[in-house]
Write a structure and sequence with these properties.
356 residues; alpha/beta; 2 domains; 6-stranded parallel β-sheet; 9% strand; binds nicotinate mononucleotide; binds 5,6-dimethylbenzimidazole; nicotinate-nucleotide-dimethylbenzimidazole phosphoribosyltransferase activity
């Protein structure tokens, strides 16, 4: 099958979560020995996952953290506090287990899957999947970051990866990314897809000062002006602005949603991938859980557009999937609440009258 055929058949196959199971899970949660709604978002997450999976008796999840890495031509505009070579260096840190996301994945009992979608001069690191489409995108200030065929190929890599993980027993996927310059790419994508000004979506990334953020806004303004004609078509916007890892992560979302497996969206860059996926297949938002809130100003705007509420707000702005890895145990706990908590009835209590 061609990349486009796989993409289209995946989009076609994505169905909304089950309303019937949502009602059953909501009723089951209401019976638990606690005041109604007192476990807050923990209740909502378990109910949403039950509705997605089509069953209330959820097993303890088998999680995987998927980190997609790639380089960005836009980094040449001086929009990051760090040099582009850091993208490749971090591949080694992922592969050797010393990166934050490797530590947090271990703490969550999750398998870590790292994929190179287009790192320039990637180091040879055992365990890192070579899914490279091209060595970095082109600079989207000057022209399209990639061709529609390259964007589709990256999406397909993500879809295939999600399918392989699910076939292997994974039923919870945390999204992560690495790519110097990718907050600028995510700012452009978010502004284009949500019809926002660059100033609303640009933040400090890896640590820009106010003057550097102003420069970043002017660069994103140039990208938006250069590609103004494509703003109605999500695949064309993705190809025009990048990036390769964003495309692959959008594919992971689509592939997971097709198989009714929840994805934990991490920060601002995975949020941009989630937006792309939602534009391609609106029902895939039922598979998304927002792990945390990044201080990048565009992140809250993305989550509002997706109708998602973040589980955590720890002022984390690392990326890599660090927030998503951390939220795995929150999701695991929410499922345990739904499946293991006692009910009022089982304790011989009447939940409608307070115990005196
Ligand atoms: O996840 C976030 O919200 C986030 C916010 C700021 C920075 N990052 C990470 O930092 C890198 C991009 O930052 P920058 O400044 O180079 O665009 C990239 O590797 C991301 O993983 C990630
Ligand atoms: C060191 C470093 C680690 C990262 N992890 C994700 N983005 C990153 C950016 C830098 C600079």
């Amino acid at each position: 099958m061609t990349d486009l055929t796989v993409l289209m058949s995946t989009i076609e196959a994505i169905r909304p979560a089950s309303d019937q199971t949502r009602r059953e899970a909501t009723a089951a949660m209401a019976d638990k020995v606690k005041p109604l709604g007192s476990l807050g978002l923990l209740e909502e997450v378990a109910i949403r996952i039950a509705a997605l999976r089509g069953r209330v008796d959820l097993p303890d999840p088998t999680p995987a953290v998927v980190v997609c890495a790639a380089d960005h031509g836009i980094a040449r505009e001086g929009v990051s506090a760090f040099p582009q070579a850091v993208t490749g260096l971090m591949l080694t840190a992922f592969g050797t287990g010393g990166a934050a996301v490797a530590v947090l994945s271990r703490a969550a009992g999750a398998r870590l899957v790292v994929a190179d979608l287009g790192v320039i001069d990637p180091p040879v690191v055992p365990g890192v999947l070579d899914l490279s489409i091209r060595p970095g995108t082109a600079n989207s200030v000057d022209g399209p970051a990639m061709t529609p065929a390259e964007a589709t190929a990256a999406l397909r890599q993500g879809i295939d990866l999600a399918h392989e993980l699910v076939d292997d027993g994974v039923d919870l996927i945390a999204l992560g990314e690495m790519g110097i310059g990718n907050t600028t790419t995510a700012s452009a994508l978010t502004a284009a897809l949500l019809g926002l000004d660059a100033a609303a979506t640009c933040g400090r990334g890896t640590g820009l000062d106010d003057e550097q953020v102003a420069h970043k806004v002017s660069v994103v303004d140039q990208v938006l002006a250069r590609h103004a004609s494509v703003s109605d078509d999500p695949l064309a916007v993705l190809a025009a602005m990048g990036g390769l890892e964003v495309a692959a992560l959008a594919g992971v979302v689509l592939g997971a949603a097709e198989r009714k497996v929840p994805v934990l969206v991490d920060g601002f860059i995975t949020g941009a991938a989630a937006l792309v996926a939602a534009r391609l297949a609106p029902a895939c938002t039922d598979a998304m859980v927002a792990a945390h809130l990044s201080p990048e100003p565009g992140h809250a705007l993305q989550l509002a557009a997706l109708g998602l509420r973040p589980l955590l707000d720890l002022q984390m702005r690392l990326g890599e999937g660090s927030g998503a890895a951390l939220a795995i145990n929150v999701v695991r706990s929410s499922i345990a609440v739904l499946t293991e908590m006692a009910t009022f009835a089982s304790l011989g209590l009447d939940q409608t009258s307070p115990v005196t």
